Amino acid sequence: MPTITQAPPETSEPLKPRDASKAIKRSSIKRDRFFPYALSAPAAFLELLIHIVPMLLGVWIAFLSLTQFSIANWVKAPFVGLQNFITALDPNGPIGSQFFDALGRTFLFTVLVVAIAWSLGIFAAVLLASKFRGNGFFRTLFLVPYALPSYVTTIAWAFMFNQRDGMVNRFLVEDLGILDEGPFWLLGGNSFFVMVVVAVWQFWPFAFLMLLAAVQSIPNEVYEAASLDGASLWKQFTSITLPMIKHANVVLLLMLGLWVFNQFDIPYLLFGPVSPEEATLISPLIYQQSFNNWNFGVGGALSVVLLIALLIVSAFYIRLVMPKEKSIDD
Amino acid sequence: MIETRGFRILRVFGLAFITLIIVLPLYVVITTSIKPLKDVRGAFEWIPSEFTLAPYLDIWTTVPLGKYFANSMIVTISATILSVSIAILAAYALSRFDFRGARSFRLIVLSTQMFPGILFLLPLFLIFTQLERAVGLQLNGSYLGLIVTYMTFSLPFSIWMLTGFFASMPKELEEAAMVDGLGRLGALVKVVLPVARPGIIAVSVYCFITSWSEVLFASVLTNKDTRTLSIGLQAYASQTDVYWNQMMAASVVVSIPVLAGFLFAQRHLVAGLSSGAVK
């Protein structure tokens, strides 16, 4: 659009201040109608191409019979109505029971990881909120797990949790002597526990980052007044710090919760494409159904269920937590 | 909090505890990377029997690390540059103009950012398969296909973060520039972008870090020739016979670009990321 790249004739001559503002006003009214659309067009086009179209297609494939036979030319795959949803959600069927198990497990995983990550994050944020020597060093160090690629740290944890010659078993069996034989950490029920440890280690710095900014925004005078009144550190924390960072907490818990709930990388890097049954989360389950069992229809149906669940959870969450913001002190 | 004696004592022990948690895996990675092979053949030892830098040289031939590195660089840098430049335009429009559709555009950007990659991977994989069949455009296993999928997460994030950044800049900047005879676009390029540079750098670094660490899309959409670091190293680490000292040396090497970027842009990155949490 040539009109955008050229300077408007009104402003190209030297103008007196009053005329100038008039000229801008006139020119911006004329041009502002197209200018924002021209600027947003590439992004809007891409959003359509990589988000909207795939999402609509994702809903569509949930109604198709898509197996390894029909995948190559899936446009011609037969329409099967709600069959994929029935397969995916039948609690007595093999896939349905897997799905409900994975759903419950993913909730437990999310609650555990978010709770521990938040606790570590708020603890570190309170400790580092005031200035002292070495403050900057710890702040940077605590963000390192967040900055490192997740595959680097997850593979390192897998190495440490190795049964035969990993660091963890060496520590438990030889250094502490509390176990006679090192257990297999990456198999069976232990694998869920390992997944929690790795996720907490990777995600808590994010909680720390957000909470530090919130804690630092509390004016010190509030604490001074409270401590003059004889409030203990714990009392100051529960009656000043926590209520005043409520807004940050809402945003953080929502973001971190969704992030952990949708987790794919950590199980994939620890266990490969197929997780142990005791550690299968929702995203990896959809992945397995689609790319290992080549059942894209069922994978698509599970995706649609996940999408709806995510929308409900976030709407419910915001409703549940937001109104309480008014009742700050008790 | 008020720095009482109790608080200071708590701080010393608390920081020591957290430091230990953080440093332990890093210690294992770094010490293992300088161990000779015989040290990683048996049970784990805390101290290397001797120091060697051989793993840092050998890993380049044990796995095609150079190729993985180049693949990751190509995909990551392309996706970052594309996302950030497209996002700058859109974010500027969203922060400066009140236009029809702006609200729904913002809503779409925010909500798509919330959805997990798995929801986009399935349909995009099918679209790529069909495009290849219909017009012969190969996207599965190609750089282009991976770059497009990486934009599914880096584009909405960049738009969202840059919009906040532009909104915090005074409008008088461009108004003055336009009095001086620059057009709207001239004002954006010559006046707004230089001032917004810290924010743009922070967003770019963040996009780089997330793309560099990406696993899900790369696990399906790469092949032998286009494999990125995440999938290449995962494949090597899951073999039965792994040279763990070399594996850990590789981990250190591939962490350097992101750690450098992070330390370089840390201040802006921290401010930008946490701005959403503070009123």
Automatic annotation (TrEMBL), chain A:
It comes from the Bacteria. InterPro entries: ABC_transporter_permease, MetI-like, MetI-like_sf. It is a multi-pass membrane protein. Keywords: Cell membrane, Membrane, Transmembrane, Transmembrane helix, Transport. The keyword Transferase does not apply. The chain crosses the membrane at residues 34-63, 107-129, 141-160, 192-215, 250-274, 294-318. Pfam families: BPD_transp_1. It is found in: Cell membrane. Residues 103-317 form the ABC transmembrane type-1 domain. The keyword Lipoprotein does not apply. PANTHER family: ABC TRANSPORTER PERMEASE PROTEIN, INNER MEMBRANE ABC TRANSPORTER PERMEASE PROTEIN YCJO. Belongs to the binding-protein-dependent transport system permease family. This is ABC transporter permease. It comes from Glutamicibacter nicotianae (Arthrobacter nicotianae).
From TrEMBL, chain B:
The keyword Methyltransferase does not apply. Pfam families: BPD_transp_1. Keywords: Cell membrane, Membrane, Transmembrane, Transmembrane helix, Transport. InterPro entries: BP-dep_ABC_trans_perm (IPR050901), MetI-like (IPR000515), MetI-like_sf (IPR035906). SUPFAM superfamilies: MetI-like. It is a multi-pass membrane protein. The chain crosses the membrane at residues 12-30, 73-95, 107-131, 143-167, 188-212, 243-265. It comes from the Bacteria. It is found in: Cell membrane. The keyword Membrane applies. Residues 69-265 form the ABC transmembrane type-1 domain. Belongs to the binding-protein-dependent transport system permease family. This is ABC transporter permease. It comes from Glutamicibacter nicotianae.
